[in-house]
Structure formats: C-alpha cells, structure tokens
Amino acid sequence: MTLQKIKLQPSFAEEKALHAQGYQLIAGIDEVGRGAIAGPLMAAAVILANSLQVPWLSKVRDSKRLTPNQRCYFFDRIKEIAVSIGLGIITNTMIDTNGITQAIRIAMKSAISQLSPMPESLLIDYVKLPGITIPQKGIKFGDSLCLSIACASIIAKVSRDNLMVDLDEVYPGYGLARHKGYGTKDHISCLQKLGPSPIHRKSFLPVRKSLDLFTYKNRSH
C-alpha cells in the first residue's frame, strides 16, 4: 500500500458528480477474498441516500484500514441507513472453474442484481463489468476514495469474515476463524498436515502444492 493511498479519505465527490448529471440511485461496489486460498469470494453493492447527515460517515474508511471492531460497528450502521444492499457470493468451486477475474465479475453482477431499487449508475473499485447496461465507472483506489465503495468494502468484508468463522466449525483444524482463509504460514502448515478441505481453492498454487505433498506423504506410509 502506497503512502498516497494511506492518506486518502473516502468522500461523496464521485456520487455528487453523478447527482449533478441527474443520477439519483448510485451503487458502490467492492469485493473481498480475492487473495484467499480457502472459502468464497464475496462482493457487495451499496446504495446510499443522496444527502446523508450522519456524523460517523466521516470516519468510514476502506475495510482494510479499520480494526475488526470498527468494521463491525460500521457494518451495522451502514445496514441501518443504506437505501439498498446486495451481496454476491462465489464458491471456491466456481472460482476454480471460472478463474478469479471472472469470479469477481460474477460476484459483482450478482450483488447488483439483488439491489432494490435497481441503481442508475455504478461506481466500482478497479473493475469494469462487461455486459452491464447500467452506466459504470471503475475507480483506482475506489475503496479509499469513494464513500459508497468504502461502505461496500465493509459490508463484503464483515459478511465474509462471519462466514469463515462459521466454516471453521464445519472444517476444524485449519484455523479459518483466525486467518479467514488467507495463506498464512499457519494455514499452509495445517494444509500440509490435513490436506485440502472441500472449501479450499484447488486451482491456487499453495493448495496445489499442499495437495501434492499431502498425497506424497500418504503414499509413503
């Protein structure tokens, strides 16, 4: 993360520019779980009202710049004030089948499809979505610049983290509640001992290597 990005603060500038063009329902969209080696990828779409006057919005940041407690606080507040929220979930199997780039697009389109009312314009972190007729803008560092995208990043992050905690009970031994499926040293060590679970992304290199090692060890015995 660059120093420039660390200093960025999300604002309503992009939304206001669209409001001036006549757009009223504007959705911010972001994803989480791109770099994980286990569990789903999630995308969230959030429509905020045009003239929000809530003091905590000035403290909203990209989810990666917030503590877990801060994320949970904002998660609840965003759900209270949002016009609409959509959440798209793509399983590890779909990621293995489609590849991560296509999986992100599918997740984002799914999140948009769940919005009601439907948005008139889209602000997306980095990505552009082919086949979407709604006007869209992909914004570099969008989660650090654009308030509705930052809110989407929080919704997606907390939703996925909560799911990974639940999955830790279904697939114990990997530490999913701790690392949320990302490739930490502890996670890789567990993978090498236990082999991949049904929710591991078998197309990702650390999982493939661990599967090969686990298979070799079992054959050796």
Account of the protein in words:
Helices cover 48% and strands 14% of the residues. By secondary structure, the chain is α/β, with parallel strands linked by helices. It has 2 domains: 3-169, Ribonuclease H-like superfamily/Ribonuclease H (Nucleotidyltransferase, domain 5), CATH 3.30.420.10; 172-220, no CATH class. Strands 3-2-1-4-5 form a 5-stranded mixed beta sheet. It is elongated and about 65 Å long. The mean pLDDT is 93.
In spatial order, strands of the major sheet run: 3-2-1-4-5
DSSP helical segment count? 10
Rg to the nearest angstrom? 19 Å
Q: Which CATH-level-2 architecture of the largest domain?
A: 2-Layer Sandwich
Instruction: Estimate the strand proportion.
Output: 5-15%
How would you classify the helix and strand content by structural class? alpha/beta
Q: Looking at the chains present, what oligomeric state does this protein adopt?
A: single chain
Question: What attributes does this structure have?
Answer:
221 residues, 10 helices, five-stranded mixed β-sheet, 48% helix, 5 strands, 2 domains, Nucleotidyltransferase, domain 5, alpha/beta
Offer a concise description of the structure:
The protein is of the alpha/beta class.
Helices and strands in order, then pairings?
Blueprint: H1 3-6, H2 13-20, E1 26-32, E2 41-47, H3 68-81, E3 84-90, H4 92-98, H5 100-113, E4 121-125, E5 136-139, H6 142-145, H7 147-170, H8 176-179, H9 185-194, H10 205-220
Parallel strand pairs: 1-4, 4-5
Antiparallel strand pairs: 1-2, 2-3
Helix pairs in contact: 3-7, 4-5, 9-10
